[in-house]
């Protein structure tokens, strides 16, 4: 056995292969996917955090207002992220190369 090889590593790569980007368009698509997933995760985390603040406010009106404002901002952020995702998917279908362009 090669000392540099980790047992079972090949099995992991078979299940989830390392992406190979053939052109700039493939790279940008992968990058946008990661950015959108990260943004959705952060917005969801923000909602959960604001919900805990809302629960733990203990009747304090200023804390309740701050938590409510955070929840609204997070929901608006989720809507903006979803719209951006759908617009990016739509734009990808429109500007998809017909062939011959190594850049897109």
Tell me the distance between the termini. 42 Å
Percent range for β-strand residues: under 5%
Counted beta strands: 0
Structural class: mainly alpha
State the domain count: 1
State mean pLDDT (0 to 100 scale): 80
- What would you report as the Rg, rounded to the nearest angstrom? 21 Å
Report on this structure.
The chain has helices at 9-15, 24-55, 61-94. By secondary structure, it is mostly helical. Helix 2 (24-55) packs antiparallel against helix 3. The longest helix is centred in the last third of the chain and has 34 residues, at 61-94. It is flat and about 60 Å long. The two termini are 42 Å apart. The mean pLDDT is 80.
What keyword list fits this structure?
3 helices; flat; 104 residues; 70% helix; mainly alpha
Summary of the model, kept short:
With 104 residues, this protein is mainly α.
Helix and strand layout, with pairings?
Elements (H helix, E strand, L loop, with lengths): L8 H7 L8 H32 L5 H34 L10
Helix pairs in contact: 2-3
